[in-house]
Structures are given as structure tokens and as C-alpha cells.
Amino acid sequence: MDYAANLAMTLPELVLAVGAIALMLVAAWGGPASTKAVSWVSVAVLGGALIALTGPASAGGDAFYGLYRADAFAAFAKVLIYIGAAVAILMAPDFFRRTAGADLRPEYPVLILLSACGMGMMVSAGDLLTLYVGLELQSLAAYVLASFMRQDTRSAEAGLKYFVLGALASGILLYGISLVYGFTGSTMFDEIAGAYAAAPLTGSGRSLGLLFGLVFVFAGLAFKISAVPFHMWTPDVYEGAPTPVTAFFASAPKVAAIALAVRVAIEAMGPAEVQWRQIVIFASLASILLGAVAAIGQQNVKRLLAYSSINNVGFALIGLAAGTPEGVASVMTYMTIYLAMTLGSFLVVLQMRDADGQPIETIDSLAGLSRTRPGLAAALAIFMFSLAGIPPLFGFYAKFAVFYAAVQAGLFPLAVVGVVFSVIGAYYYLRLVKTMYFDEPTGTFGAGDKLEGGLIAVAAVFVSPLGYLAIPALSAWTLAAANSLF
Amino acid sequence: MSFPILSLMLAIPAVAAIACLFLSAPAARLTALVATLIDLALGVLLWTSFDVGGAQWQFVEYAPLFGRFGWALGIDGYALLLIVLSVFLMPICIGASWQAIEKRVPEYMAAFLFTEVLMIGTFAAQDLFLFYIFFEAGLIPMFLIIGIWGGVNRIYASYKFFLYTLLGSLLMFIAMLYMSITAETTSIPVLLNYDFPASVQTWLWLAFFASFAVKMPMWPVHTWLPDAHVQAPTAGSVILAGVLLKLGGYGFLRFSLPMFPEASASLVWLVFGLSAVAVIYTSLVALVQSDMKKLIAYSSVAHMAIVTIGLFAFNAQGIEGAMMVMLGHGLVSGALFLCVGVIYDRLHTREISRYGGLAINMPRYAILFLLFTMASIGLPGTSNFVGELLSLMGTYQVSTTIALLCTTGIILGAGYMLYLYRRVVFGEIKSEEVRQMSDLTPRELWLLVPIAAAVLWMGVYPESFLAPMRKDTQILLARIDRAKPAGDSLPTKGTGVVPAAHAETSAHGSAH
């Protein structure tokens, strides 16, 4: 395969990388004054990458001798990632303008572009090394973003915490990768899968090296998707990071990490399905339970949403546990709807400002929001009922898809325990609705930004029952994406 | 029929609900009333154009909109009657809230209209998951109605209502997933004739039971109901007792019985046992209540137990009787909650001991309240008599013991209802406040008189209501007959010559 064809398949990443480097130069010379221009150009670059996906990047096959995969699965994940990244850029200027002691600098969109580029590499990885490089590019950009409000100690703490724990996770992952490489003799997914298929994985003569490699790789990935028991960084980082950055963390990197975990599980370790399924089921149920129980006592909206994201990752993993094409499709369906719900919720959180424009994060401050800002309250109520998976909102279909896949694969106990735990989750989502609708107003929020209002409306309409009309297209698309892995 | 009348019945309140959110309070009230009246008119049209004895499923609509499941609507006789009940009670609910609700009227009206959409949708859905969506979505507006416009302890009641019913439904959801995957269809009419293996049926039946028993509600998972009723505003109680409780019975009739006949038959003991306990226990609890709404709420649980025994009697009398109890109870308990609402609006208390002697200064109210009290007891000539008699007759053929135990519910029912009526309406006027209370206003008469007329109609000429469901009952019986449990009432044949005296009594008996 010639070089031009390889480059054509990696075009989205090239667009992002070149765009990010060029904009970094603009940022360096232009200084803070160029922030607005750089932001809009960054969104345009993401749009360009989205257009680039329509070419060979979505169905070209393997590039660079199998290091990089340009398939429908990667393309689908990238669409979600670019949307998440673009919204994270769009919601930032207003937040930083109003928040005292924090200025938006042009580096912010550039870092998001770099992170998006890394995520693209992650979901397209066909080799453990591509996987690792992509993951680190994404993470390093994210560490800086977490501590973007330099004067704010919570933000600095979040960045440091994220960095230290993220480095630990990378270490665990690398250790797993080294074990896998050592026992299979390759870093290519296809050859690893061949080695797993050939090696004995059960009985007394089982290959412990391969199994340990698998466990460590999954532990490292669990860190990145913040699945229990490797979730402990999430609430602190989500609380401390600036809200637009938190929204970003909860959306695009989560999609990327889940997609990566799916690809590694199916493509590289598919033959060891029985072995990794145990890990996935445990992580899934533990995440659903802990995400639900720990959220009950929270007073801070961002922390609550952090636990909510842990909870949701647990549900997405139910689809992965099924291990079938339908299961993978359901994971992608879940992440699509999750993206809309999460970005919408965080956009509402961005509107929570006092009269001076300073952000408020307590749940109590939402009291009586349905009186003071009925539209905003209705939107947040839609997101909360949707996250709880109550029909007729679209979040129900997300849960429908993963449970359908689990039941289809015969995992009845998992499905039953999963739904029972979801009732616990419903409790704290209801609490937000109760605060907004049943309690008396205590204060009012300052006026919101038009662009953000529009984005909230778009997300709310997508999550509303109207979203069901998108199901045929979404099912066809996710199934095509999933089939490209098998 | 090509005209999508069911979709139209769903669309009108849905559009009106959204419109209400943008209107002022008086305009929202009017919009809601007009929308519900149009739906009532459509409901009447639905009933008159329903071909009795014709095709099992009528007014069928299908559009494969949602990938794995579709927009499939269609009704049989059971669904028709319950839809008519819903659209009949809805304008009354709006009217009952006309003055009682003063804060956040547009949202209130929108919540009620959404509830109407979801109720009609639940009864009309012909797709498993479409049914589930409508069934479950009803929680959201009801949660808001109880939580925003409810009484003092409204938040506890709304949470309890929501989480209790959610837990039950989710187990049913998993069972539905299994059914749709195994049978490779989500169409309810197809699933009605699909035979699941008996061992699987038991699990599926139990999962559905978890949901419907909570909705029904059956003892011992009925505890959410008194809380929800007491805290809900009057119209909320009416719709909760009138229609939402019927979802459980409808679910048993639509899913549990025809889809899992063997499991239903083998678990009849469970249903009968719980129902018998419910009848006696909740009736006794109702006797000692000091809060009027709580008393009626407990009486609802007892009446619903008569429904469940009738349904699981596996014969035409039982099933048709259960349906009649559901319809009758929907009207009567709704009316009783309205009666409580009438005096609550005047004195702002539901404590029975605060009232007394209302017959003196509220004669019209006393008459209507008496009618509904008698109907609740099951006096001949009222709706509940027909249903309860049929239901208990059906049960008697299966289990004489259970029939005996459940019939005590009627005696106890007479006890607590007459006791309530005596304390509230008869006797001396208790206080100056009570003396000040005025009789029914024209608006209140407009709410109660139509229900009273319907109650009498059902009692005097039940054929109008039995006819649409007769054929469906036969189809259902043909389906479940193979699993029919053996009855323990073994009537022996007559011995030939009938003595003259007996002939007289039997002729007398058949005249009933």
C-alpha cells in the first residue's frame, strides 16, 4: 500500500494535528487577544476533521501495516468525539469571561484539538503502541486542561490529582502491555488475538502471563473510563476542573476510552472473552452500584454528575459484557445518547451563576428553578429523567439497547441485577428534579448565553421522545460500526 | 379503518399540553378542558364505531418507526372500555381542579394532559415496548402532580410512588426483552398466541407480576397507595384511583393470562391468597381510618383484590366481572374522591371527626354521596354490584373458600362505608364552620352527576358494557382453557322431578 493511501486514511488526525500546531503558533504570536479567533478556527478544524472522515478514513481498512485502523467503528467514535470537543470549545468563552480570576487563553482550544487528535488515534489503534501513544497524547492535554484555572487551588489540585493517578494508570496499562507483548511476541492486535486463541487459558496448564497481561490491560483501561474500582479520581477531578473542561472530560474522552476498551476486548483479546467478561461484569455492576449509592449524599452538582458518569459507564459496559456485534452496537448507541445527556447537563450547570456571574455548584441553589427559569429547569429535568432511563425519554432507549444485548447473550443475572441497581440511581436523579420543582425558590440565576441556550435546546430535543425517530438510522449505523470489529 | 383515530386521540392532548406551558392560567384551564372534551367526543365516536363481535383488533395502526419496535396501535373490547373510562374521567378531573388549583396552573394542566396521552397510549399499544414506554412514562407526570400540588407530606409520597412502581416495572422490562428475543417479535397480538415453555413461563409471569401487583396494588405491596392518595390533589386521586390502578388489572388480562396460561394456572394460589388477605386486611384497616381519603384508598385495595380473584378464575363470569369491577370502581372511587374534595375545599381538612350533619345544610351533596357510597358497597342497581357478583360467582367455581373469604369484603365494605357516611353526613352539625358550608355549586354538580348517571347505567343495563368484551373473553378463554385449574365447587346434578315450591324459587332466582 502506498504512502498516499495511508495518509488519506489518517486524514482526520492529520487535519487535527496540523490545525493544532498552526493554531499554537497563532496563539504564541497573537496572545490572549487571539482567543476568540482561535476558538472559532478550532471548531472549524474539528468540522474539517469530520468532513475528512467521509473519505477513506471511515472504510479504508488498515493503514501503516496494521498500526492504524480506518474502519466504521473508529469513524463512529470519532464523530462523537469531535462533537464533544466542539461543544467543549463553544461553552468555554462565556464561562471564563464571567468567572473572576480566570481568563480563557488561546491554548485552551489548541489543547482540546490535541486531545481530540489523541482520542482519534486511540479509537483507531490496531496496535498496542498506537493505543498507548494516542492515550498519552489525549491524557497529557487533559492534565493541563484540568488545571486551566491557575489561580484556583481546586483546579490546580484537580490537574495534579489527575496527572498522578493518570500516570499510575498508564503505568499499569504499560505493565499489562509489556506482559502481553512478552507472552505473545507481538503488539499487533491481530497477532495477539491469534496468540490468545492458541494458548490454553483454562485448566492447570493455563498461561498465567497472558491472563495477567489481560488483567492489567483491563485495569489500565478501567482507570481511563473511570469504572469502579479505579474511579476514585473522577469526583475530585470533575469538581475541581473548570466546568467546560469537566463537560469535556465526561463526554469525548469517555467515548474514546470506552471505544478503545471495546476494540481491545473484541479485536485483541476476543478469544479470551470468557476471561475478560468476568472483569467487565464486575466493573459494570460495581460502577452502577457505587455510582448510584455514592451520589446520594452529594451536595455539589459537578460531583453528582461525576458519580452519574461512573454509573453510566457501568451501563455501557453491560453491552460490552455481551461481547456480540449487537452488544458493541449497543455500547455505541449508549455513548451517543450519553453524550447528549451529559453535555446538556453540564451546559445547564454552566448557567448556574449568581447575580455577579460567579459559578455556583451546590444542588440547593437549584431550588425552585422551575419558577425562576422554567425552560432551564425543564431541560435539566429532561436530562435527569433521561439519565435515570425513564421512558419516554431517549435515555431509556440507551438502557434498552444494552439490556437487549445482554439478554440476547443470555446474561440474565447481569441484566436483572443491573436494572435493580438502576432504581437506586433513579433516586438521586429524582432529587434534582425535586429540588427544582418541589422546593421554593431561594434565589435566581443570572441571564444565560444565547449560544449555550441553543445548545441546551438541541440536546434536550435529541433526548426528548422525538429522539426515538432517530433510532432506525442510529441502529443501522452502530451495527455497521460494530460489525467492522468482528 | 384507515383514519388514525387513536393517534389523533393521543395527539390532541399532547399538543394541548405543550400549548398549556406557554399560556396564562385561565387560558390553560380552558385549553385543557377543550382538549379533554374533544378526546371525550372522539372516545364516544370510538365506542359507537367499534364493531361489537367483529374483528378482535380494531382501529389498527402500524408504522415501523423505531427500529426494533414500532408505532403499533389497536384496541379490543377491553382496551376500548378502559380508554372510554379514561377520556370520561379526564374532563371531570380538569373541572375538579378549576378552582382548587391556584398555583402553577399551566404546568398542572400540562401534566394532566400528558397523563391522558400516556393512559390512552398504554391501553392502545399493540407493541410490547410501546406499551412499556407509555406504561412507565406515566410515572413522570404523576410524580410531578403529587410532588408539586400535593399535601404536606407530598415529597415522601411522590418518591415512594415513583421508586416502588419503577422497581416493579423494571423486572417486567427484562422479561419483555427475553420475550421479544425468543419469540422474535414485539407485536402483542402475535405474542398472545406464542407458547413459552412452562418452566420459563413461571419466571416471566413472576416478573410481570412484580410490576402489575405493585400497580394494582395488591397486598403487601399496596403501601404506596394510601400515601399517594392522601397527598395527591383531588384530581390526582381521581385519576390515580380511576385509571392508573386499572393498568395493573389490564396488564394481568393482556399479558399474564393469555401469554403465560400454564404459569397463571399454577400460581393461582398466590393470587388468591394475597387477594383474600387484601380484602379482609385492608377492609379492617379502612374501618379504623380517621382520614377520609385514606379510608377510600384502603377500600380501593380491597376492591382491586376482587378484580384479581375474578381475573384468575379462568371463566367468563370471573373475567367479565373483574372488568366490570374495574370500570365501576374507576367511576365510584373517582366520584368518592371528588366528594371528599368538595368538602375539603370548604373546610380544608380530611379528618372525619371534624364533619357531621352535612345532610342538614348540604342535601344535594348528601344524596350524591349516598349514591356513591351505596355503589361502593355494591348495592344492586349500581355498577359495582354487577361486577362483584360476577367476579365472586366466577371465583366460587374455582375455590369456594376464597369466594367465601372475599365475600366478607362486601360485608366489611358496607361496614366502613356506612360508618363513614354516618359520621360525615348524619347526626348533629358539629361546629359553626360546618354550618357555614354551602351545598354543591353548579360546577360541582356538573362533575358528579355524569358519574352518577354512568354508575346507574352500568348497574341497570350492564349489557352495554359487557357486549364489547364478550368476544374477547371467549378468545381469551379458548386460549387459557387448556391450563384451567380444577375447581373445588362440585355442583351435583338435580334428581329429576322438581317440587313445585322449588320451581317457584328458581324462577324467582332467574329473574335477578
UniProtKB/TrEMBL annotation, chain A:
EC number from the UniProt entry: 7.1.1.-
Localization per record:
Cell membrane; Endomembrane system; Membrane
What Pfam families does the entry give? Proton_antipo_M (PF00361)
| The encoding gene | nuoN
Q: Which residues cross the membrane?
A: 6-30, 37-55, 75-96, 108-125, 162-183, 210-233, 245-266, 278-297, 304-322, 328-350, 376-397, 403-430, 451-471
> Which family, according to UniProt?
Belongs to the complex I subunit 2 family.
Catalytic activity line of the entry: a quinone + NADH + 5 H(+)(in) = a quinol + NAD(+) + 4 H(+)(out)
Q: Which UniProt keywords apply?
A: Cell membrane, Membrane, NAD, Quinone, Translocase, Transmembrane, Transmembrane helix, Transport, Ubiquinone
Q: How does the protein associate with the membrane?
A: Multi-pass membrane protein
Explain the purpose of this protein: NDH-1 shuttles electrons from NADH, via FMN and iron-sulfur (Fe-S) centers, to quinones in the respiratory chain. The immediate electron acceptor for the enzyme in this species is believed to be ubiquinone. Couples the redox reaction to proton translocation (for every two electrons transferred, four hydrogen ions are translocated across the cytoplasmic membrane), and thus conserves the redox energy in a proton gradient.
Query: What's the subunit arrangement here?
Result: NDH-1 is composed of 14 different subunits. Subunits NuoA, H, J, K, L, M, N constitute the membrane sector of the complex.
Q: What class of enzyme is it?
A: translocase
Q: Where is the NADH:quinone oxidoreductase/Mrp antiporter transmembrane domain?
A: 125-425
Q: What name does the UniProt record give this protein?
A: NADH-quinone oxidoreductase subunit N
UniProtKB/TrEMBL annotation, chain B:
Q: Domain NADH:ubiquinone oxidoreductase chain 4 N-terminal, which positions?
A: 66-119
What name goes with this protein?
NADH-quinone oxidoreductase subunit M
What residue spans carry the region label Disordered? 487-512
Keyword annotations for this protein, in alphabetical order, are:
Membrane, NAD, Translocase, Transmembrane, Transmembrane helix
PANTHER family assigned: NADH-UBIQUINONE OXIDOREDUCTASE CHAIN 4
The primary site where this protein sits is: membrane
Per UniProt, what is the membrane topology?
Multi-pass membrane protein
Q: Does the keyword Translocase apply?
A: yes
Domain NADH:quinone oxidoreductase/Mrp antiporter transmembrane per the UniProt entry, residue ranges:
125-410
Organism in which the protein naturally occurs: Sphingomonas endophytica
Give the family per the record: Belongs to the complex I subunit 4 family.
